[in-house]
Design goal:
heterodimer, A: Rossmann fold, OB fold (Dihydrolipoamide Acetyltransferase, E2P), six-stranded mixed beta sheet, five-stranded antiparallel beta sheet, about 25% helix, B: about 280 residues, mainly alpha, MetI-like fold, about 5% strand
Chain lengths: ~375, ~280
């Protein structure tokens, strides 16, 4: 969470490019603050402006409008070699003509740190990333995971104010990626440096981050902690991008206290917290694992809709049902494979779906 | 059977090399160790006197060739590197156009191009004649038939062979690596010195080889643009072979030049660290 002086502050940052004679806005006005020691993720699909945003923090791009502040100081026009921020590149960008030790010592040498201290710090950081004994290796003699750790050490050894990571795990296979996620989190705790992590992988962002900014089309759609982003997506885009979501659209029938009563089909009755008037059309979302599937009508007080089971997929720890509602909307339901799961429905069955009102949200 | 296919496919090339490279060199080696003349015929004596005589007689021209070739190569490196750098990093989408412009002179014969340079540099030619007419240059100013003209001609003729390999090496440098250097507090100059230059050394190495060897052995530039005091070793070989018909001496000089160049290249490769160069090239 942001401290008194945030590590990084973006204030109305806009980036425009000239492409084929036309001005294109890659970033359309982003303002956010990243606290000291925070693990902050910029999450979004490719082309959403997350990489451009990060490159503006690093200093590789100058914003068309807006300010970039580092620990309260305006660094908008400061070149990257004068910013106390380091970056881990997607392709690692290690110096191919230098060995591991020379790669890691590069930044300290440019800062004219005393040779004895360089020796100490490079040795220490190589120990943290578990590369002791490989100082003389060339980057191309190492595996992807090892190169990744060299890139991390090369940046962290400078003790930057913040570390920017551009999809650093993208080139690794699944197993190694999961291992490195834990590793990154451990290293971040150990060194206590602010991490700004750019990724399009939602599970990666949810696993590691303290807070996430979900970006779409050059704007931040939602900025919150992982639980909030997952449980209470603020927009249709966030709900669709993070995990599997069911999107429903209906007309408000009545307002009962804090709850809206939304009707889809004849027997359907959806209760959802929100603010709207009777007659308004609202979009709402509910996660597949929050829905209970049954053949009997659920108790009153729950949201309930009726549908027909379509596809049933066995996925090991859970089953996934695709249930078609009367209006054609398809709802995904996850059901845990518990021992007593007796309510298994078959393809073609008419079933009731129900969930607690507080597990669904209206979307803007 | 199948594993022999590559060898069969390579056979024509091997035969071609054997017949047109190995055989002539062997024949030349044999000729260089004969004595005699065109009228009485040559006899294989295995006497090395052709070599000792040729070196004694033409050491001035040999040394001059190495100096001209060396100076021209240094000038080409100084002129060519920035051009290669500019095309690789700054030319944007017009890269291929500039590369084409670089190769455009090759559509005209090497000899013709050198002769046109002769016209251009002539004392009363379009360039100096005009400048003298305006009084910008003194009347007795001349370039043609001087060392400057010969080295200038060599630089002009071989410059693309310096630029292209350096360009290829620079083109292969990952822009992210350059960004990483800026990110790690290196200045523009420091980034060039520590990252870009070392990564382009394989190209520099190739460029120097591809220009120094032909420039040193070249007879055309000295013949067309040089005066009596600018004779290079290539001219001597030409004269001995075609005018004096002294085949043994011509062969001996050719071999001497080859040996000197090979030794020079070997020392150069050692100095630059072939291993590092090849390592960087093999990444």
């Amino acid at each position: 969470m942001p401290e008194d002086v945030p590590a990084i502050e973006l204030d109305g940052v806009v980036k425009e490019y000239l492409a084929h004679g036309e001005t294109v806005q890659a970033v359309k006005g982003v303002s956010l603050t990243i606290g000291e020691g925070e693990f902050f993720s910029l999450l979004g699909p490719s082309g959403c402006g997350k990489t451009t945003t990060m490159r503006m923090i690093a200093g590789f791009e100058e914003p068309t409008k807006g300010l970039v502040k580092l620990l309260g100081q305006d660094v908008t026009n400061v070149p990257p070699n004068k910013r106390d921020i380091n970056m881990v590149f997607q392709s690692y960008a290690l110096f191919p003509h230098m060995n591991v030790w020379e790669n890691v010592a590069f930044g300290l040498r440019r800062k004219k740190v005393a040779e004895a201290e360089i020796k100490q710090r490079v040795g220490d950081i190589l120990e943290i990333v578990d590369l002791t004994g490989r100082e003389k290796r060339r980057p191309r003699e190492m595996s992807g995971g090892q190169q990744q750790r060299v890139a991390l050490a090369r940046a962290l050894v400078n003790r930057p104010r913040a570390l920017l990571l551009d999809e650093p795990l993208g080139a690794l296979d699944l197993k190694l990626r999961q291992q490195m996620q834990t590793e990154l989190k451990r290293i971040q705790r150990e060194v206590g440096i602010t991490f700004v992590y750019v990724t399009h992988d939602q599970s990666e962002a949810l696993t590691m981050s303290d807070r996430i900014a979900v970006m779409n089309d050059g704007l931040v759609e939602q900025l919150a902690d992982p639980r909030e982003i997952y449980e209470r997506p603020a927009s249709k885009f966030v709900a669709g991008f993070i995990g599997t979501s069911n999107l429903l659209s209906g007309t408000v029938d009545a307002v009962e206290g804090d709850l809206l009563v939304v009707r889809l089909g004849e027997h359907d009755r959806i209760l959802v917290p929100g603010k709207a008037a009777a007659g308004d059309t609202v979009d709402l979302t509910v996660r597949p694992e929050k829905i209970t599937i049954s053949t009997e009508q659920p108790e009153a007080g729950l949201s309930m809709v009726q549908g027909t089971v379509g596809e049933l997929t066995y996925l090991g720890t859970y089953n996934s049902y695709a249930v078609a509602l009367a209006d054609g909307t398809e709802i995904t339901v996850f059901q845990q494979n518990a021992i007593d799961s007796s309510t298994t429905a078959e393809r073609g069955d008419t079933v009731w779906l129900s969930w607690r009102p507080q597990h669904s949200y209206t979307l803007s | 059977m199948r594993r022999w296919t590559p060898y069969w496919l390579a056979l024509p090339a091997w035969l071609w090399l054997a017949i047109f490279l190995v055989v002539p060199i062997a024949a030349m080696a044999s000729v260089s160790l004969t004595t005699g003349n065109l009228i009485d015929g040559f006899t294989q004596t295995f006497s090395v006197s052709n070599y000792t005589d040729a070196i004694a007689k033409y050491s001035t021209q040999l040394v001059r060739s190495l100096v001209y070739g060396g100076v021209a190569t240094v000038i080409m490196l100084v002129l060519g590197y920035p051009v290669a750098y500019w095309i690789a990093f700054k030319a944007g989408h017009r890269k291929s156009m500039f590369l084409f412009l670089l190769l455009l002179p090759f559509f005209v014969s090497f000899v013709l191009r050198t002769i046109s340079w002769g016209f251009l540099l002539a004392d009363d030619g379009i360039l100096f004649g005009t400048l003298k007419g305006w009084g910008v240059l003194p009347e007795d100013f001349h370039v043609l038939a001087t060392t400057v003209a010969v080295i200038g001609g060599l630089v002009y003729n071989f410059l693309p062979f310096m630029i292209l390999p350096i360009y290829v090496a620079l083109e292969r440098v990952d822009p992210r690596v350059i960004e990483a250097s800026y990110d790690l507090y290196a200045s523009r100059f420091s980034t060039f010195r520590r990252v870009v230059l070392p990564l382009s050394l394989p190209g520099v190495f190739a460029g120097v080889l591809m220009t120094f060897v032909p420039a040193t052995a070249d007879p055309i530039n000295a013949q067309v643009l040089g005066g009596t005091g600018n004779t290079m070793i290539g001219n001597i070989v030409q004269t001995e072979y075609l005018v004096n018909n002294d085949y043994p001496t011509a062969s001996a000089i050719s071999f001497t030049l080859m040996a000197v160049l090979l030794i020079g290249i070997f020392i150069y490769a050692r100095a630059l660290g072939t291993e590092n160069v090849l390592e960087a090239a093999a990444r």
